[in-house]
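Supplementary Methods, section 5.1.

A reviewer requested that the exact input to the structure prediction be made available. We therefore reproduce it here, unchanged from the version used in the analyses.
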Amino acid sequence: MDLSLLTAISPVDGRYFKLTQSLRNIFSEYSFLRYRLQVEILWFKKITSMYEILEIRKLESKDVLFIDNILKNFSIKDAIYIKNIEKETNHDIKALEYFLKYKFSKSKKLSLISEFIHFSCTSEDINNVAYALMIKDSINQVLLPLWSEIINFLKKYSIQYKNSSLLSMTHGQPATPSTMGKEILNFYYRIQRQFSRLKKIEILAKFNGTTGNYNAHLAAYPNVNWHIISKEFITSLNLIWNPCTTQIEPHDYIAEIFGCISLFNTILIDFNRDIWGYISLNYFKQTSIDHEVGSSVMPHKINPIDFENSEGNLGLSNALMHHMIKKLPISRWQRDLSDSTVLRNIGLALSYSVIAYYSVLNGMKKLKINHAQLLRNLNQNWSILSEAIQTVMRRYNIKSSYEQLKKLTRGKEINKIDIHKFISSLNIPEIEKKRLKKISPVNYIGSAIQIIEETTA
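The structure derived from this sequence is encoded token-by-token as follows.
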């Protein structure tokens, strides 16, 4: 069976193919080869830039251009060539090295110094830097732009619905009102914090040989400070240099990044479930699309499928990332290979997140608030004002204030007349009675609007 959108095992490469294109350009096998080729070439150029110290041939500009074009023109055909070599070597990085040597053989001058390809490197020197670059690009090019779009929508709706009074539900029961804008603002603030945090997490890389001590480097050139050379190389790639490792970079930073992303996702799951609930309560209506069908048998339905899809994919993404958080920072002694197959699934973990982000964005675009239903629910729950009344009674030292309101309201249907009658009976100043009677379930929203305005300013 040929591989296609319909025959792919993973929906990431099948059903959701279009949504994950941006990550495919980073995490596919072809892209992974390209990133590793980039590292090999950059290290070769770093080595040859030290021609005086290492007493090797200096590259001319035409040689540099030749090398750069190997990466610039890297193609699927080249990738297949490398994979065919790997079938014989059973080693992916060695196959990449042989590919580069084959390319260098087409230049007489470069062929003379081709042994400086992969000089003193262990495979993990190449791989860890490639992964660091891939993760950096995925964050900057894909994740942060999508997060920013989600944040902008949340901010927009926080402001748009700042005056839309909402009957709060604590323990699923009617409670002190808020506004729809303030409830969305809560998610805006939480998600914004993770956005800021992700941008600050350092992406580390190492380049120090088989067990992290530059053994081979010093065997060849004992008078060179390879520690400094390593730092110069890593920082030139806009990565943070890890000076102290075993054979592998320990992946702590990946765990930190996935911890941040998974918390962002968890907050978004919370948002999806709340919006799903508000749609169920008819607080939000969804824009209908004529050609779409909500049910195979119930023609009337417009299901909140975008928020459900988002929730499900966020859960899948988090499950993979939680495993990576626990697995990747652990390695037996100086190196074992159990991290390799896990690292190859980073793109899959992020793909489920990206699918979820597109779904929630699509869902938010369809939302239209139903003010009539919000007001209806508020006006059916005058008992929620018992909090305000008993608190004012406490101010005037009226005994058993809480208990009096409990007797009046708990488990009973209370209306405006009942509340105002009780207020009139209180032994408090008339001005306070008038103020309390002006409070309704609709306007008893505290500082909700002020909090929105100050937070989004």
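Residues 17-119 form a domain with the Fumarase C; Chain B, domain 1 fold (CATH 1.10.275.10). These observations are discussed further in the main text.
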